[in-house]
Amino acid sequence: MQKVNSVEAVALPLSLSNIDTDQILPARFLLKSRKDGLSQYLFHDLRFNQDGSEIAEFPLNHKPYRDARIIVTDRNFGCGSSREHAVWALYDYGFRVAIAPSFGDIFLNNSYQNGLLPIVVSAVQAAEWRGQLQAAPGAHMSVDLQRQCITGPNGVSITFEIDSFRKRCLLNGLDDIGFTLDLVDSIAAFEKEYRGNMSWLEPEERAAEASAP
Prior knowledge:
Layout: E1 6-14, H1 21-24, H2 44-47, E2 70-73, H3 85-93, E3 97-100, H4 105-113, E4 117-120, H5 123-135, E5 140-144, E6 149-151, E7 157-159, H6 164-172, H7 176-181, H8 184-197, H9 203-211
Parallel strand pairs: 1-2, 2-3, 3-4
Antiparallel strand pairs: 1-5, 5-6, 6-7
């Protein structure tokens, strides 16, 4: 997983609430390989008509937003099923930050595990930023994870909250498995000390170790 520190990029306003994971990546594309490019299916049924033509009203189809790396949306983003593919599609398209008043719980965890930074702000603040982005298509926002600071399209900055463990993992590019592997030496030292202090718990195993050449 790539490290997350700071992002300064075009931001996409998406003023829809309760966008579920099937809208982010429709179920019929779940069997597609990530190597084939899940980004082409991102928001597929919101972006495209049945004949494959673009839906003009969807903001991601507007040229100023095509290179967006930050998405500012409404409440309960990523609700619905637990598919990790939804986060993959967002990430593979290029998004690195998702800002909303609330997220689906499983989507939130999947984001942390895949290097997508989810940030919770008030509904009023999210709506204000979406309005600014709609008024100035292609406007940039910036996010500094180390400082826990977001700078809006108008240049005004606010701070945001994030769990310290999640922050540490994102800054170091670690998912849960990576975090555990990073502690291998500490785990080995603990097990060695534990066995020394609790030798009566594993007499057969210790005897086997002692008789090994």
